[in-house]
Structure formats: C-alpha cells, structure tokens
C-alpha cells in the first residue's frame, strides 16, 4: 500500500497569539475528519506577544504535526520566498 500524501500548511505569524490555537485546531479538525496527513509550519517573525511560546505549546498538544521556524525581526512575507537575479 502506498503511503498517503502529507499536506504542508505554512502559517506566517506576527502577533497571532490569540488566533494561532484557533487556526491550528480548525486545520487539525478538517484534515483529521477527511483522513489526510498534514504538518503545520509556523513561521514567526519575533512577535512581541510571544506567539512563538503559544506555538511551542501547540507542538506539545499536536505532537509531530507542528514545526516552528523562528526568525529574527519582522522580516515579512517577501523574505520567505526565493528570488531570481533581476526579479
């Protein structure tokens, strides 16, 4: 039997402490209900509201599902994608 596809979800965050548990719970419910494998990559730009700490708690609540990438400073979405010379 072939392994199932794993769907990655990337969540860029900045000051999303209150919203993060809600979106992670909704995503988990939707993927689980439909029998899909998934992982959630939370990218936090050093949120002053401690969003990263909430993400760490979510890693414990959803073991193996949450990946936290912490970045220094507020870098924004533009730095998260690759660029070609001259683009």
Write a compact overview of the structure shown.
With 87 residues, this protein is an alpha/beta fold. The protein has 2 helices and 3 strands; from the N terminus they run βαβαβ.
Sheet of most strands: 3 strands, parallel
How many domains, in number, for the residues? 1
Beta fraction of the residues?
A: 15-25%
Q: What structural class do helix, strand and pairing data support?
A: alpha/beta
Number of helices: 2
Radius of gyration: 15 Å
- Sheet with most strands: strand arrangement: 1-2-3
| Percentage of residues assigned to helices | 25-40%
Distance between the termini: 43 Å
Could you explain the architecture of this structure?
With 87 residues, the protein is α/β, with parallel strands linked by helices. It has helices at residues 20-33, 51-61; strands spanning 6-13, 37-44, 66-70. The chain is elongated, with a radius of gyration of 15 Å. It has one domain (6-73). Strand 1, helix 1 (20-33) and strand 2 (37-44) form a beta-alpha-beta unit.
């Amino acid at each position: 039997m072939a392994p199932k596809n794993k769907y990655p979800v990337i969540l860029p965050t900045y000051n999303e402490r209150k919203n993060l548990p809600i979106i992670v719970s909704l995503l988990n419910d939707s993927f689980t209900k439909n029998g899909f494998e998934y992982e959630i990559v939370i990218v936090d730009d050093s949120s002053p509201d401690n969003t990263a700490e909430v993400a760490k708690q979510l890693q414990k609540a959803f073991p193996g599902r949450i990946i936290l990438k912490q970045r220094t400073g507020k870098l924004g979405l533009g730095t998260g994608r690759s660029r070609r010379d001259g683009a």
